[in-house]
Every structure is written in structure tokens, then in C-alpha cells.
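LAB NOTEBOOK - FOLDING QUEUE
OPERATOR: T.R.
BATCH SIZE: 2
PURPOSE: Compare the predicted C-alpha cell outputs for two unrelated chains run back to back under identical settings.
PRIORITY: normal
REVIEWER: second-year student, initials M.K.

ITEM 1
FIELD SEQUENCE / FIELD STRUCTURE:
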Amino acid sequence: MALTSESTTIWKGTLFEGSGDVALDSSGLATFPVNWTARAEGVANMTNPEELLAAAHSSCFSMALSLALAQAGNPAESIQTTAAVTFEAGKGVLGSHLLVSARVPGISEAEFEAFAADAKDNCPISKALGIPITIEAELA
């Protein structure tokens, strides 16, 4: 069964002077303010599309890695993934870098790195992005 998730942004004003709010419609969990300055320069207490994309990428990757490890008989005790999505004005989204640390009993560093590389390539968000994705993965 397919699931469609929705978010809505209401934007007011021009790109550079305006601002908006993005709502997580499907879950109803939050509404976040966004504006150009937050996207191009970073602003405290305000998000941007790339931070939301990083949240999607880090959670999707963690789920994919958890599944692969469990299916191989090596369930993870914990997985911590940070996705760093880089945006440059005029060029767009340049890439996503995954920084992964996990506790996985009974697996070697080399085996873990292979599982992490596969999850990087095959999690649904990675497949949807179409940008360079790099990874650093280690056992905790």
C-alpha cells in the first residue's frame, strides 16, 4: 500500500524580503518558519528546505540500515545518522554527507561499512535525490 505524505508552505512577499511557514500536514506535528536568509546564510530558530531534506535523508538512511542489519542477523542496538545537505545560492543543492555511528554487536568494521554503503545507495530518499551522496560510517 502506498502512503502519500503532505506538507504545505504559505509564502508571503518576494523571495528576498518575504517569508513563509511550512506545515507538516500529514502528522500535524509542527509548523516551521522559513525565509531566504535562513536558506542562504543560516538563521537561528528558523529552518530551510535543506534542513528538512537532511531530516528526511538521515531518518530514511537509518531505517534502511537498521532493516539490512536485522535481516542479516545483526540487529543494531543504536544508529545515529547526521545528514549534512549543502546548498549554494545560484547552484542549488550540491550534495548530502552522511555521518553514521552505530552499535552493532557481532559485526566487523568492514562488514558494517559495507552495510552502510548499501543503505546509502538504496534508501528511498537517496534514490530520489539525484545528487552526490558521501558517507563516513563507523561502529561506536
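ITEM 2
FIELD SEQUENCE / FIELD STRUCTURE:
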Amino acid sequence: MKRIPHSVYSTLFGVVHLALGVNIALAIVALPLIVLLVTTDPSLSWPLLALAAVPTGMGIAAAFGTFRAHADGEQSVIRTFFRQLGSLWRRSLVLSAIVVAIAVVAAVDVFVLVPTGVGAIFAPLLVVIALLAVGAGIVGMVALTEDPRARIADVLRISLIICVRRWPFTLVSFAAIAVQAAVIVQAPALGIGLTSAACLYVVWAGARYALRPALRPVSS
């Protein structure tokens, strides 16, 4: 019987270590959002959920930075996550606030306009705006980890272009997020404790690949 190489076990342990470490660190940063989701009715507490989602964006950016460091050979996870958080928190917080504000305003306007006659005209446009904001925000968080020197205005502009031009990667990100949301609804402990890192890794990998044309001049 052929023995399994030691490198396979090492790789498997590294993946499990990365996933668990990112899940734990992300849960710490996103604790206010998690508590609100578990203890309140989202249909009534959505303003507080929106506020809590803003700092959660910092954790997502730190997770993306941790994935990048791990791909470059970094072995530590928790320490790397919080090091990334320390270097990215200001810019990721600004980007997260912009994305959440646009998405929330668009969503509220949709619910207001749907019962009216003009809802059929403007509601689809508002939904598209919200989706574009989220898609650009995802790409933007990855861009911040790839080029910390980039200005937020440039990040937003390039991310919006990338998420539209390379829309298949954006759709994959949305699909991963939808699956993760379904898991959290059905089994919150499983979604928060185990599958969050896997979802974010898929999103990060797709967005990073989509960003390659924009990052090539930076790395040259």
C-alpha cells in the first residue's frame, strides 16, 4: 500500500490552521454584528446591523491580507490577521462605510418605492447600484491588501471597473456569499465558526485574479 507523503499532511494541516485561525479572528472583529444577528430581529434592527457591518469590513480586509501572506509563505495566522488589521483598519473602515452607506440607502429606497407606481422603474436600478457597491467593495478590499499605497478614490474607481468588466468573477463572489448566508441562516454556529474562511477565500481568490491587469503596473 502506497504511503501518503508527509507534504500532503503538512498542506492539509496548513489549510485547516488557516481556516480555523481566520474564522476565530474574524468572529472577534465581527462580534457586535454576530450578537445582533443572533439576539435581534433583522427586520427591526437593520439600522444597528448596518452600523455593526461597517467595522466588520475591517475584519474582511484583514482576512484577505492573511490569505495573501499565507500564499507568500507566512505560516502564522492569528498574528498575521491582527497585523493586517493594524495596517489596514483606517482605509478598510472608510471603504466599508462607503459601501454599507450606498447599499443601505439603495435598499431602503427600494422598499419605499416598491409599493408606488415608479417602483417598477427605479427599484431595479437601485438593486443594481447596491450590487455594484458590494462587488466594488469586495474587489476594493483585496486591492487594499495588494497595494497599500493606493488612494481610496483610485481603489473605488478601479474596483468598480474591474467588477463590471470581469463580471464572471463578481458572480462567483456573489454565489459564494449567497451560499454562506444560507449556511448561517440554517446553522449559525457552522457558518460563523467553520465556513466563513472558505467563503472569503473563494471571494479573495476570484477578486485577486480579476485585479491582475490593474496590479501588473504596480508590481513592475
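REVIEWER COMMENT (ITEM 2): The first helix runs from residue 6 to 29.
FOLLOW-UP: none requested
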